[in-house]
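Action item from last week, closing it out:
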Amino acid sequence: MRPESEAEVCEIVRGGSGQSGALSLRGGGTRGVLTGGEALDLSGLAGVRLYEPGALTLVAGAGTALAEVEALLAGERQRLAFEPPDLRGVLGREGVSTLGGVVAMNAAGPRRMQAGAARDHLLGVRFVDGTGAVVKSGGRVMKNVTGLDLVRLMAGSQGTLGVLTEVALKVQAMPEAVVTLGGPEQGAKGLACLRRALGSPFDISGAAMGAFGSWVRIEGMAGSVAYRAGRLKELLPGWEEVEADWGLVRDAPVRGAEIWRLSVVPSEAWAVAEALPGADLCFDWAGGLIWVGCEAGTAVREAVRGRGHAMLLRGPSLQIGGRAWGEEAPGVARLMAGVKAKFDPRGVFNPGGMV
C-alpha cells in the first residue's frame, strides 16, 4: 500500500483490525529493522511544504527524500546539523532514505555530541495514531512545553507509535571553516585523547577513531577555528591538521556477518572493545557510540551489559518480526508497553519492533 495523502493513511489504519491488520511502516527501507505486517510505503507523502532560510525552518512530508532536502539546504549554505548517516552500504540495502525515516530512528552522525540528535532539531510533527486519528504536536519555533512532549516521543519510536506524515525541523547554517586534527594514538590511548579533546572548552564537533585513524573536528568562523585548532595542538602533542572524510565515520565503516550499534559510557568503550576480540570496530562520539562488525553469534550483548545498550541492525538471527534490542528492565518494559497501548491500542504498527 502506498498512500498519497494523510487522509488515505487514516483510512488504511482504521481498516486494520488487531494483529491481522498489522502494518510495517517504511519510508525508503534504508535504515532500521524490518518488522512483520503488511508494508505501508510512505514515500508518497513527499514534498517540501515550507522552507524559510532566514528563519532556519523547514517543513516537509515524511516521505520526502533526504537527498532532496539536503540539496535544497545546500543551495542556501545550510544543513541538517545532526548529520544523518547513510546506512545502505553497511546494511546491504537499496532505496531512498526519507526524512520521516530519519526522524523515526532519531538518526544522528558524528556531530551529535555537539549539536544533538534529530529530536533536538524537531520543531513539530503530524502523525496518525493507532485509531486512525491525526495528531499534531509542536509548531515552527522551538519552545518549552508542559505535559507529554509528543514531538520528541515520536523521534526514535521507530514507527511503533504512529505514522509520521509531516515534520518541521530547525536547520543550521554551514560553517565558514572546518579543520580536522589527526593523531598517532590508537586503542585506549586514542580514546583517551578523544575524551580529553571533548572535555576541553574548544567546542569539538567530531571525535572518532577507527581504521582511518584518530580524528578531532572543529567547525565555525575561520578565526575561531584557527585559534581552537592551535590550542588543541597544545593539548594533544603530535596531532596535526589532516584531510578527513567524515562520511566514513558517519556511515559506519565496519563489516561482518552481524552489524551492531552500541551506546556506551565513553570511559567504558575500550573495555567493551577488549571483550570483542577480532571484531571490526569504529568509535564515534569519543567512544560513546561503537559500530561493531563481527561473526554471527558473537557475545555482543554480554560485552555491553552494565555499560550501555546494544542494537542489532543486521544479522542472520534478526528475522522480519524479530527484536533488534535485548530485553528491557521490567520497569522500563512496563512503561514502554503503556505508551504503546496509549498510542497504538490495537498493536497495528510495526509488530515485533522496539516495543
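Closing note: The mean pLDDT is 90.
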